Amino acid sequence: xxxxxxxxxxxxxxxxxxxxxxxxxxxxxxxxxxxxxxxxxxxxxxxxxxxxxxxxxxxxxxxxxxxxxxxxxxxxxxxxxxxxxxxxxxxxxxxxxxxxxxxxxxxxxxxxxxxxxxxxxxx
Length: 123
Hints:
Number of helices: 2
Strand order of the largest sheet: 2-5-1-6
Shape: flat
Low-confidence stretches: none
Radius of gyration: 16 Å
Order of helices and strands: EHEEEEHEEE
Largest sheet: 4 strands, antiparallel
Structural class: alpha+beta
Oligomer: single chain
Helix content: 10-25%
Strand content: 25-35%
């Protein structure tokens, strides 16, 4: 089963984090990514740019609307996604617990409902 680990945390202000703290976080995520890969469960991983780089697109009212910024203003922002292939929710929770971001934010564990693999939607 595929699980998305969705990382949410408050975006730090420019210059709020020291270079040392940033380097420690990068090293922790590097080790985490390598552990996921070594376990054979990592499908993909992305760290997202800050919400200031976001563009939101909708046609829900029939017309195209493109807006700068995130869909909703929140205290915490979606900061990254790990897509894992795991046997069950317990395994997903185990990997979420080990995610470095769980120390300063939250890791949402969400199973995939369907996936587009090799040109076909799964059920």
